[in-house]
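Page 42, continued from yesterday. The earlier attempt failed because a stray header line got pasted into the input along with the sequence. Redoing it now with the clean sequence only.
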Amino acid sequence: MNQDMPQRRYLISRRSQWCLLAGCMLALGLVVLFSLLFERSRLVEEQKQRLATTSRVIDENISWQLEGVSSALVTMQGLDVSYPEGVAATNRELRAMADAMLGVRTLIVFDAKGRVLASNRDSIIGQDFSAREYYKKVTRAA
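This time it went through. Structure tokens are written below.
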């Protein structure tokens, strides 16, 4: 019986070491898990802030560009294309406006029949756009 005692103590000691190791591994796993969860929540919050800032900047830029386009359209209402010098002046004015506004490629002044009277692009002056869908939509709405 005395011989079984040391072996039994060895088994108990070994079993307690394994339990201690398992407990430490579990504790370490929990620390890593909570660390990862905290880092994830921090990253999500950081990305939300970034997205909010980006959307605010985009909103400001688009608002600024739309105000510029609106101002250009108001200016275009006062352009006179009823005589040749007026057409030339209007073409220059349209070029200057198109150059000043990012994202605007072409500015056109049409007559009632869809012909181009003036534009910042000389290549389309005189062309007939009455068959284009965007022109038809405007004439139907008017």
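Notes: The first strand starts at residue 108 and ends at 110.
Reminder to self: strip header lines before submitting.
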